[in-house]
Specification:
By secondary structure, this protein is α/β, with parallel strands linked by helices. Helix content is 38%, strand content 14%.
Length: 401
């Protein structure tokens, strides 16, 4: 069913057929196995699903490692949100897009890398900064990849015959750097581009509409929004999705159904949460920028952080992440965090409550020295608390530096 607005789609996506089931809330199927109609039919279903095919009506689901209806509903919902702009323009591309959900964001990225390696395309071109886990996975070559980290304007020169993927993140973790996705796609030529869209969410950015082949999310973050479920998604063409489902089925990376339910339950409030969090983040960024203890404030809504005007040309807002570099370096950062009472010191992001963390010591600890964030850098994920209460808590932190 087509919806007239993104907000309506966020509420109703993935909920088709509930009336026929006689339920209003999303159902959860926790079955680890499924009855088989007969031996031949069961074998056919197993072969179909293990090869990455989509379930045919009337076929048995066989085993949860292969497929689960609760997960499939969540995938359908993410596909609708990630293709909203394409469908609004009546683009035929939207009709060939599918989402594959995994147990975590890193499981999703790992499956994507394996899909390229398995086709003899194990060379990756990546633009830093990116999430520390992704950076480390590429740098160590654990999955058989070989990587060249290059500036965004050097991608075309880095492409080789065996290049299978270009990896970017925008806004990037943790310094919120922006890259011109359309230009990246153009410079990459025949090589598909993966965009980690976790910070932006489909509310603020839709990479497939900008030409990217893969839009990745750590669904643990904004999509779920409540810090109680882990998952990852890849939205791409049906051809790529089939390969990813095959890898997921064989390696056992399927998102569990209870997490799928919780993540799906978070989607109806996603636009409301992201826009409110962005409003508060913008106000906080301007407030932090004036603090003498802050050497630099990183926020995509500042002209100095967006010299290409990308927030206006490829996004629908600057987002709710803010990073600050303290003038006093690591000592100041440690003291600052120790003074906070309302804001939680924890990794992850995108939840309803505000979190702060030190990337160099945590999420980016295993990143090479030349790409590691400053010891004075702190990353804030702004939640739904009032601006006044957050400022009061940040003042407590500054009083300790």
């Amino acid at each position: 069913m087509e919806h007239s607005s993104f907000d309506t789609a966020a509420v109703h996506a993935g909920r088709s057929g509930l009336n026929q089931l006689g339920v209003h809330a999303l159902p959860i199927d926790l079955s680890s196995t499924a009855p088989l109609h007969d031996i031949a039919g069961g074998g056919h279903s197993y072969e179909l699903l293990a090869a990455g095919g989509s379930l045919v009506e009337g076929e048995s689901t066989v085993y949860r490692r292969l497929w689960n209806p609760t997960v499939a509903r969540f995938e359908e919902a993410i596909t609708e949100l990630e293709t909203w702009a394409l469908r609004a323009r009546s683009s035929a591309v939207a009709d060939d897009v599918q989402t594959v959900a995994f147990a975590s964001g890193m499981a999703a990225i790992s499956a994507l890398l394996l899909s390229r390696v398995s086709q003899g395309l194990g060379h990756v071109v990546a633009v830093r900064p990116i999430y520390g886990g992704t950076d480390h996975l590429l740098a160590v070559g654990l999955l058989g990849t070989r990587v060249d980290f290059v500036p965004a304007d050097h991608i075309a020169n880095a492409i080789r015959d065996d290049t299978g993927l270009v990896v970017v993140e925008s806004p990037a973790n943790p310094s919120l750097d922006l890259v011109d996705i359309r230009r990246i796609v153009s410079d990459s030529g025949r090589v598909p581009v993966m965009v980690d869209n976790t910070f932006a969410t489909p509310v603020l950015q839709q990479p497939l509409d900008l030409g990217a082949a893969f839009s990745i999310h750590s669904a643990t973050k904004y999509l779920g929004g409540h810090g109680d479920a882990m998952g990852g998604t890849v939205t791409t063409t049906s051809e790529h999705a089939t390969k990813l489902r095959q890898i997921r089925a064989i390696t056992g990376g399927l998102l569990d159904p209870l997490s799928a339910y919780l993540l799906h339950r978070g989607l109806p409030t996603l636009p409301l949460r992201v826009r409110r969090q962005e409003e508060t983040a913008r106000a906080l960024a301007f407030w932090l920028k004036e603090r003498l203890e802050v050497k630099r404030t990183y926020y995509p809504g500042f002209p100095e952080c967006d010299d290409q005007n990308l927030v206006a040309s490829q996004m629908y807002g600057a987002g709710a992440m803010v990073s600050i570099e303290l003038a006093g370096g690591f000592v100041a950062a440690e003291a600052f965090i120790g003074g906070l009472e309302l804001i939680t010191h924890a990794v992850s992001l995108g939840g309803v409550d505000t979190l702060i963390q030190h990337p160099a010591a945590l999420t980016h600890r295993l990143v090479a020295a030349e790409a590691k964030p400053s010891d004075g850098l702190l990353r804030l994920s702004v939640g739904l608390e009032s601006f006044e209460d957050l400022v009061h808590d940040l003042e407590r932190g500054f009083a300790r530096t």
